[in-house]
Amino acid sequence: MVQNYTIEQLNNGRKVIDFMRYSYLSFIISIILFVFSVIFILLKGFNLGLDFTGGTIIEFHLSQSFDIDKIRECLDNNLYKELLIQNFGSSRDIIIRLPIAKGLTNQEISKSIISLIHNNIDNKLIVKRIEFIGPSIGSELLQTGIISILIALICISIYINFRFEWRLAISAIVSLVHDVIITLGLVSLFNIEVDTTIIASLMSVIGYSLNDSIVVYDRIRENFRKINYGTSYEVINISLTQTLNRTLITSGISLLMIFMLYLFGGLIIKGFSLIMLIGVTFGTISSIYIASALVLKMGIKREHFIISKINKEGIDKNPLLP
Questions:
Q1: Where are the domains of the chain?
Q2: Residue 86's closest CA among 191, 200, 195, 203?
Q3: Yes or no: is domain 7-47+138-313 CATH 3.40.50.300?
């Protein structure tokens, strides 16, 4: 005979937030964002940086601090307009990135740029490095970056398939793909330059999103084995409520630190920080409204976890909670 109970009693008298009430709305929003992201990726593509298209990197040290706009103005006046000029480490260290040139060799352009800065800005500058990246090397880097992301997704899929019940594993994979595609869609929409730091940030987003989903899944699995009364809908809401503080604290601190990097970290890591901001935000939301909600829609039940535990341990140690 099933006893009468309230959902708060199943959560030791604490209030339970009804997250799953908005699951259909979250699915609709996520599908719309996903479709638009795919459209942007296919139609607009990506703004590939020098790491992938090839070009030249010039790094030099000035004898004193100069306004970077003066350097840019000097080069613009001499028809060098397609350059990325930024500080590198300190206000005296400058890095210039230029794409592959037509007509002149990049070595000739590099010498001309250094000569202009030497004659008009600082005659005591010290050239630290001139690095040329060929288009074939850039293409290989792009392929390696894509392969790295795919391998990471495959390894993660294998891991969670062994660790969790298959419904949880599929939901986690869908959530990961959802986060990556939407993040890439925003990269394409806002024309963010894609370089090797962006690949690193995407790998970080995958790891962060997975970690958040695993924490929630561990609590869902634990509660299904502990709580004998209550529907799957109620157990998932209880699990999400119990992990909410951890999720908010972890995500909040992470977003705060990433935002500080975005504001004060300089142009070198601005792209990395922006992708992390987008990815961590969507990863946190998707761990609740994609990963967990999809598990519920796939018909997860208490029996799935109890049978799994009996198969592994040979006995059912499931405690009863009225």
A1: 7-47+138-313, 55-133
A2: 195
A3: no
CA 255 to centroid of chain Cα atoms = 12
Topology of domain 55-133, CATH: Alpha-Beta Plaits (3.30.70)
Specify the pTM. Answer: 0.74
Between the alpha carbon of residue 313 and those of residues 159, 187, 308, the distances in Å are 21, 47, 9
Q: Work out whether strand 193-194 and strand 47-48 pair parallel, antiparallel, or are unpaired.
A: parallel
pLDDT per residue of the chain (322 residues) written in tens, 0 to 9: 445 656 666 666 678 888 888 888 888 999 999 999 999 999 988 887 777 777 778 888 888 877 777 777 777 776 666 677 777 767 778 888 777 666 566 677 778 888 888 888 877 888 888 777 766 666 677 777 778 778 877 887 787 777 777 788 888 888 888 888 999 898 888 888 887 788 888 888 888 888 888 888 888 888 888 877 778 888 888 888 888 888 888 888 888 988 888 888 766 778 888 888 888 888 888 888 888 888 888 887 777 666 544 444 444 444 433 3
Instruction: Using alpha carbons, list the distances in angstroms from residue 287 to 108, 122, 183, 243, 300.
Output: 52, 53, 15, 11, 16
Nearest to 273 by CA among 198, 209, 211: 198
Dig out the tokens for 294 from the structure.
């999809």
Backbone dihedral angles phi then psi of residue 311, each to the nearest 5 degrees: -60, -35
Q: List CB contacts of 209: < 8 A, sequence separation 6 or more.
A: 175, 176, 179, 279, 282, 283, 286, 287
H/E element holding 249?
Answer: helix 232-264
Backbone angles phi, psi at 124, to 5 degrees: -115, 15
Cβ within 8 Å of residue 244, ≥6 positions away: 17
Non-local (6+) Cβ contacts of 251 within 8 A are 212, 280, 281, 284
With CA atoms as reference, report the closest residue to 298 among 180, 210, 171, 163. 171
In total, the chain counts a number of residues equal to 322
